[in-house]
Amino acid sequence: MGLGGISIWQLLIILAIVVMLFGTSRLKNIGSDLGSAIKGFKSSVKDEGGKDSGASERREPESDTKDSTPS
């Protein structure tokens, strides 16, 4: 038995049907597009994480100059 009751032969038949339907060149393009999308997502998440932690460290408390002046 393979994954969840699916044997290796059934997976090979499904793979052959997918290749016949889409063709190898289209599957290659889909794979490269998916890879570049994942890479872009990871880099944007990494950039956002750096911005958030850096901004919180540089933030200074705001002070009211009107309230702090002596009367």
Quick structural gist:
This protein has helices at residues 8-22, 24-58, 65-68. By secondary structure, the protein is mainly α.
List the uncertain runs.
none
Q: How helical, in percent, are the residues?
A: over 70%
Total strand count, please?
Answer: 0
Strand content: under 5%
What global shape is seen?
elongated
Number of helical regions? 3
Order of helices and strands: HHH
Mean pLDDT: 79
Instruction: Look at the helices and sheets and give the structural class.
Output: mainly alpha
Task: Please characterize this protein's 3D structure.
This protein has 71 residues and is an all-alpha fold. 76% of the residues lie in helices and 0% in strands. It contains three helices and no strands. The mean pLDDT is 79.
